[in-house]
Amino acid sequence: MALNTSHAPAIAAPGAASSVTGAQVATALREAGIAALLTLGLSIPILAFKTEQNQSNALYLQPRWGVVAVVCGLIFLVRFAVCLRAMRRAAAPARLKAPASPFVQKLFGIAVPLFLGVALTYPLLASLATGGLAGARYWIDLGILILTYVMLGWGLNIVVGLAGLLDLGYVAFYAVGAYSYALLSTTFGWSFWLCLPLAGILAAFWGIILGFPVLRLRGDYLAIVTLAFGEIIRLVLINWVELTNGGAGISSIPRVTFFGVPFDSSENGFASLFGISYSPMHRMVFLYYLILVLALVTNVVTIRLRRLPVGRAWEALREDEIACRSLGINTRNTKLTAFAIGAMFGGFAGSFFAVRQGFVSPESFNFLESAIILSIVVLGGMGSQVGVAVAAIIMVGAPELLRNLGFLKQVFGADFDPNEYRLLIFGLAMVAMMVWRPRGLVGHREPSMVLTERKAISGSLVKEGHG
Amino acid sequence: MSDAATMPAPAQAPAGRTPLLSIRGVKTYYGNIIALKGVDLDVHEGEIVTMIGANGAGKSTLMMTIFGNPRCREGTITYAGRDITHMPTHEIAHLGIAQSPEGRRIFPRMTVFENLQMGAAIRNFAHFDEDLERVCTMFPRLKERLNQRGGTLSGGEQQMLAIARALMSRPRLLLLDEPSLGLAPLVVKQIFNVIRELNEREGMTVFLVEQNAYHALKLAHRGYVMVTGTITLQGTGKELLENPQVRAAYLEGGAH
Question: Cβ of A313 under 8 Å from any chain B Cβ?
Fold first, then answer.
């Protein structure tokens, strides 16, 4: 019918996101009404009357308005549905390209202060929620664990996210940091505060040692060499028994002190110094704030570095090495600083790990750790600080959540251990992520500098891999 | 080696002076394959010199060889009286040579502003605002897009950005590798006008590698023709434009 040349596609206003607006419904109703009227008009000669013979064989017209009404009604409904469908189709592509809604943008605006607020008050919140500091032990421990991975993620983000150097052996620097503190404190009795910078320096040194041979490598080749480097460090730790005590590890590493004041119940302990009753949780809370400060330092340093020439050189290096060189950037030094600074934060996190555990062994530094840290960076959206934090919470927190899903036992039987399916669920989550959010949770990159005003250019408008 | 004899004595622009860039007997290999078979070329201060040639002639290789990547196996490259043949690429850039490389090679995920900053990094951002103003007047399109990512620019805008980024370092010698590649004729004209202005107003020395022979030769003071790694012809832009061999090989068939 000629009716089909409706102006339905033109109706889809650009503002229409997913649903169809009231004005559009009105238009569709009008379209359907016109169609019904035309049907009615056409029905009068062909449908409304039927010729019948009566008993005297005379022809007469039998009106069939009921049938006409049914047909017109059907046409009305079908036309209405077709119109709406066309509008929705026309609106759909616009929805895909629409920039983040104001709500999402607002969410990003408050995300950072919110995170910071929760992180700062977390021990308090946890003890309030569980009714006492002692009860919050599990939650504070989990918080420490998550923050450790946030810090590791931010450290690796410098190497992978900013400088674009795929590093699969980041755990090596974590190990160097942990063993530095373990060995220095058990051998020489040096305090944590002295060993912390030393561990960072040592890890940075190892970062440079790794950096030199891989200067010419990129992408897959770099990944393989860094992977091997991580394994070499672990195997050295296992086999150099005289120094590292081999696979048995180093135990009785001195615990953290409150700037020299031990966390114990003695006369000179933390509790009696501050006149409060002793609780082993004091040390936990202190460790929590220690790793929080270390992580925040990593973050602040990264943000600052991004604004400095060296930070921008990292990012330019990630984009195009040849262009970098012809712009006069010393790519060798740029790469080495990225490796060294990334490794340094790994070293800090490592010595924190050692002081928290009081025990280190090579088993803590296997490839799975590297893979988890790298997944945190990739899932978070390479180069995004907030994204890395969110990804760390999900990657480290989710397995803990899984551990507590007791009701699944009732469904699948008592032998069912949800934790055994952890990696399976991780794999599924990753595949889903890569399908729906291939740029990571927070996929857009904030420019380190803007001239006058920020102009949002969504990453989804840029070619894949260039967002 | 070169049949420059077909040309009247090549008009060496300011004769007698030592050239700003001097390339002598440069041979470059990719593995065992020779790409440049002994190239001699001079660029004098204040000149626009162009090199034309077909695909695979070695034009871009020469451009990259000047920057030491790939490095030439034989021959010497002298810039402003210094032998730069074996100098690391980034140090060559520090001597005042800037390059808009083949394929533009802008930083796609960084904004236009950040791209321009990278160009100025070499000078430690001295006169940054002034230079930014200058390239923005030259390319008003870039000014509109300063906070936009490089990768979202159109091809022509990306080319402008590549040239602007090179200019941010205030170079003495500007190397341009096929600035007309893949651009609409109108944009090509715009870009060539900017090159001419740079040369006339600021006396900038430009070495231009092009396939768009007509535009390049019209713009340039002097030109070279390269065929499979060898320079076969040289002369002033006008001479080459009128040369029957050049016309037959590079200008017939609607090149304009």
Answer: yes
